[in-house]
Each structure stands twice: as C-alpha cells, then as structure tokens.
Design brief:
The structure is a homodimer. By secondary structure, the first copy, chain A, is mainly α. Helix content of chain A is 63%, strand content 10%. Chain A has a two-stranded antiparallel sheet with strand order 1-2. In chain A, a hairpin with a 2-residue loop joins strand 1 (53-60) and strand 2. The longest helix of chain A is centred in the last third of the chain and has 28 residues, at 135-162. Chain A is elongated. Chain A binds a DNA duplex through residues 1-3, 17-19, 35-39, 41-42, 60-67, 91, 93.
DNA sequence: CGGCGGTATATGAGTCGTCATATACTTACC
DNA sequence: GGTAAGTATATGACGACTCATATACCGCCG
C-alpha cells in the first residue's frame, strides 16, 4: 500500500500524470520510494476508484493524451493518516550490500578493487544528490558522505595490512 | 534470486536449518537481507533441487526433526559468481523514509515530535548494532550514528526557528 | 516520407514478499 | 494431565514488483 500513498503525496504537491510521477520518483531517491510505470498506472486507477484522486484528460503537445490526476480532499485525509502511522526500521533488502558483506571472505586485493568500485558508485550518486534543501535530501547527503568515508577507510586499512605479503605473513 | 544467494552465503559459513538461517538473518541487518521462513523454506528446496546444497536430517533435542543444509562445491561456485556481479545502488523502498519526507509539510511541533520518535528508533538500533568487527557492521554503525546526528540537527534547527510563534512570524 | 527518439499509456507473465494458519515435538510448570 | 512456550517445518492466498512487450502521438532529420 505504500506506493499509493507515496503517489498521493506527490499529487498533493501538484497534479501530475503517471509519467510525471515516475520522473519525480526516479530523480529524487530521498523520497524513499520508486516504482516502475507498470506499477504506477494500476495504482493510480485504484486511487481513482477509491475517490482519493480525480482525473482530467488533456492533450499533450508531444505525445498521446495525458491523464492528469490530482488529490481530492478525501485523498489528503487518507495521506495524513498514513503519514501519522508509527515509524519502523525497514527490513534489509539490498543485493549490493549482501555482496559487499560476502566479499569479506575474499583476499584483500579483490576486496580493495571492489570497494573502490562501490566507492565510485557512491561518489557519482553524491554528485547527483548535491542539490536540494529538504531535510530528506540533507539526510541522503550525509549518509552518502559517511558511506564514502567508510569505503575509503576500509580500503586504506586493507592496503596498510597488505604490505604483509604471504611470505611475511607466514613469519608472524 | 538474491535470497537464494544470501542463504548460500550463510551456508558456506556453516551448515544450518531454515530456522537457523532465519535467526542469523534477523539478528544481523548488516548482511543486507532478511526474509520470512515462508520464503526461506521453498528457497532452500530450490537450492537442493539445483544441487547447490545438500541435506542431512537430524533429530532435534527440542522439536521436530531438523533439515540441515550445507553448501556443495557447485553451490560455492555459484555463490562466487553471484558475488562478483557488478554493484548498483538499490531502488529506494522504505515507507518510513517516505513518511519522514512527507512530514516536511507539517508544522514544526509535529515534525520535532516525530523526528524524535525516529531518533529513538535509531538509538535503539544503534545499541543492537554495537558489537561486531566485520566491515559490514562497521558500515552499519557509522550510518546509524550519522542518521542519529542528522535527526538531532534537524530537531534543533526546528526548535530554534520555532521561537518565532505565528504572531512573531507575521511581523517579519 | 521513413525512421528515430522522446512522450505517454497499457497489459500480461512470472517471481518475490507478506501474512495467516497448521502441524508436530519438547520441556517446564501448575 | 493440561497447557504454555520455544523449536521447527510447511502451505496457501494475496498483493507487490520486475521485465518484456505493445500501442500511439509528436517533431525532427536525412
């Protein structure tokens, strides 16, 4: 049910079509949710059937007719209640993190290489996240910065330890 | 397919039953994945059919017979390949974060109250995460600490701004 | 004018995830 | 002897999600 509420949240900010909503979700990961169009369209229809949004068809200057949705008073009420529900930490669900964790059984040179691969991903994402003054965006920025620092620290530690090659290691 | 690989990863560390695996996943969020037993059992069967794990039945001292799985050489190979796949940042999928982001349209007193609710969640989780010397756990710890600091900073900023009540605000 | 790229909606197959429920074995306690 | 609590496996319904595919409207470029 989260996707519907997230869409409702976007529609309270401003009316939009399914396609618009997808753009907004994709460009701002700080919102905490994203989904494919194939999930967004049926979700909007459910919101419409439930009376949480209204629909206006409009000609598009550059494509097929747009279906523009806007939140109704009932939709705003529903959203408010959803936002007020208690917080909880999400169940972890991140294949990249799982790979990173399993990587710890590899040899240092491999680990360093892949840590730096990850580090670069983070650096790119940090660039993309550089703008924006919402609390959610500030949160995302500090988390990315922290993770970047973590990756660098882990790399450095591995490189420092690595000066002991197999031969030296055997003597300790 | 991630769940199977994560389970395989645990089984390479040590043989275990489905129930054991669930305990291990639940107790260490730094591994990056968790799932219900109702997902774990069928997943183990698929791994068994695929020859990635082997099965040994054992009497349990305190319950019905256990089904203990261990990774086969083919399973280890499969795992290695999976771990070597390229990294990517996960699609955001976090209802709590979405609530937090939407909360920014509420009035400061509400926002402070809920930020502190979230802060307390984080503080509890940080306590649970206090042990462990793997890189993945270190990562989790620094991220939780950063997020805690973020929540406190946002609260403080709101409280500082709040000294301007509606009346004072109107005059500026 | 034919095709390409961007805008826009739509659907279906198949998988993954959640939640509820059932069963069975054991120890511990009343 | 009944039952509660912890260990352990299992299944089914339902909804969420991914991925592939189709259609259509537009302007632009060669």
């Amino acid at each position: 049910m989260s996707l519907s509420h997230v869409l409702l949240g976007l529609l309270v900010e401003s009316p939009a079509s399914g396609w618009d909503l997808k753009q907004r979700l994709a460009e701002d990961p700080a919102r905490g949710w994203d989904a494919d169009l194939s999930q967004i369209y049926p979700s909007l229809r459910r919101l419409l059937r439930g009376g949480f949004v209204s629909l206006k068809r409009r000609r598009s200057p550059k494509g097929p007719p747009r279906r523009e949705y806007r939140a109704t008073p009932s939709g705003r009420r529903e959203l408010k209640e959803w936002v007020a529900e208690p917080f909880s930490l999400p169940r972890p669900h991140d294949a990249t993190l799982a790979r990173l964790a399993l990587l710890e059984r590899s040899l240092p040179p491999d680990r360093v290489r892949r840590l730096q691969e990850y580090r670069n991903l983070l650096a790119d994402e940090l660039k993309r996240a550089a703008t924006g003054t919402t609390a959610a965006r500030r949160r995302r920025r500090v988390l990315l910065e922290t993770e970047l620092a973590w990756a660098d620290a882990e790399s450095a530690a591995l490189l420092a330890g690595r000066s002991l090659g197999p031969a030296e290691r055997a003597r300790t």
